Automatic annotation (TrEMBL):
Top-level taxon of origin: Eukaryota
Name of protein: CYLD hydrolase
GO molecular function: cysteine-type deubiquitinase activity
Record carries keyword Cytoplasm: yes
PROSITE patterns: USP_1
Keywords: Cytoplasm, Hydrolase
Signal peptide interval: none
InterPro entries per record: Papain-like_cys_pep_sf, USP_CS
Length: 227
């Protein structure tokens, strides 16, 4: 355990601490979905560090302590987290979530995020979405859904998010404080994309509801949008 707090890893420090053998979060017993989510959320960004410290309304301080002292701080300090630490968290999630398979089965990352953010910590939803003028939907992450498109061989995240929003007729109601995106997930037999290039910045201008934008023809403020 590492009770002392460590900031997220940046630039050359991130490369030095995280690259190499025995680095990252050790996998065990179908933990890959949780390992990947935890690494993405905490290794190199502080956007969700409130999850580690804030006394939220429903906050379970035991789970919060395990997450902070046994997973996030060791990851940031040495670049390595033992599988036993993740199992400790999984055991607590099993008790709190009333689901016996959290310790041995592979889950969808969204299920894990909803459980820990909503039921255990009581965090307000991070995203507000609207589909086709319908009622707003609150959620904690966005999973990319789209049909196979022949012109996308090695897409980047920007392309996938834009096309997924377009195909689902979705808009962001407001600029999110944190935009967690789950990539398309497929089994061993079939993958839609062999690789996806990370977009280091994400332009959400065209994804925002009622956001003033420039006309692509004259440069003035646009009044109509063509999908």
């Amino acid at each position: 355990q590492t009770p002392e707090s460590f900031p997220p890893l940046r630039n050359e420090t991130a490369v030095r601490v995280l690259r190499g053998r025995m680095k990252g979060i050790q996998g065990h017993c179908n933990s890959c979905y949780m390992d990947a989510a935890l690494f993405s959320l905490f290794s190199c960004t502080s956007v969700l560090d409130s999850m580690l410290f804030m006394p939220f309304p429903l906050c379970d301080r035991n789970v919060q302590g395990i997450l902070r002292d046994e997973i996030v701080n060791p990851l940031r300090r040495t670049g390595f987290v033992r599988a036993s630490s993740v199992m400790h968290l999984r055991e607590q999630l099993t008790d709190k979530g009333q689901c016996s398979s959290f310790t041995n089965a592979e889950k969808d990352p969204e299920e894990f995020l909803n459980l820990i953010m909503q039921q255990i910590l009581g965090i307000e939803p991070l995203l507000k979405l609207q589909s086709g003028g319908q009622k707003e939907q609150d959620c904690y992450c966005y999973q990319i859904f789209m049909d196979k498109q022949e012109d996308l061989v090695v897409p980047d995240v920007q392309q996938l998010v834009e096309r997924s929003f377009l195909s689902s007729d979705l808009k962001l109601v407001e600029i999110p404080s944190c935009f967690i995106i789950q990539m398309p997930r497929f089994g061993k037999e079939y993958k839609m994309f062999s690789k996806i290039i990370p977009s280091l910045e994400l332009d959400i201008t065209d994804l925002l509801l009622d956001s003033p934008r420039e006309c692509c023809l004259c440069g003035d403020v646009a009044t109509l949008e063509c999908s």
